[in-house]
Amino acid sequence: MNLLKANFLKVQDVLENYKSSVYEKNVESFLSAYSPEIHIYDCWGSWDSKGISSWKAKVEEWFNGLRAEGVSLHVDFNDVVVEENLNLAFVHCAVTFAAHELESGEKLRQITNRFTFGLRKDNDSWIIVHEHSSLPISGESGKALFDLR
C-alpha cells in the first residue's frame, strides 16, 4: 500500500489532518496518520479493525457512502486533552460529525462521539497506533445516545 508520507510534527497536526481528510474524502491522506499495525475499536459496524488494510476498506466504504449521498462531512474536535512525552501521546476528546448537503450547505444531521487516540512518534512524526470511539448508552432503552452535546 502506497500511503502518503506525512510529517505530523505536533499531535494537533494529526487532528487537523483528520478533519481536512474527512472533509475532502481523501483516503490516502486520512490513512497517512495511522500506523500500519493500527488497532481500532469503533462504535460502527464491527467490534474492531486490526491493521491498515482492514481500516482502509472501512474508510473507503465510509467516504464512498458520503460521496454517493452528496454530502460533505465537517469534523470538530471539542474538549481536547493531550498528554504527551517524547515518544507517546494520549488524546481524548468529543468529536462532532456534521453532514451538510453539498449544493445548499444545509446541515442534514449531526452526531458527537467520544474518541481516544494513542499515538507514537515514528521518525519524528506522530502516528495513531490505537483509536477508540464510543457513544454513551441509555440505561433505560439500551440504545446509543448520538448527540448529548
From TrEMBL:
<feature type="domain" description="SnoaL-like">
    <location>
        <begin position="11"/>
        <end position="137"/>
    </location>
</feature>
<protein>
    <submittedName>
        <fullName>DUF4440 domain-containing protein</fullName>
    </submittedName>
</protein>
<dbReference type="Pfam" id="PF13474">
    <property type="entry name" value="SnoaL_3"/>
</dbReference>
<dbReference type="InterPro" id="IPR037401">
    <property type="entry name" value="SnoaL-like"/>
</dbReference>
<dbReference type="InterPro" id="IPR032710">
    <property type="entry name" value="NTF2-like_dom_sf"/>
</dbReference>
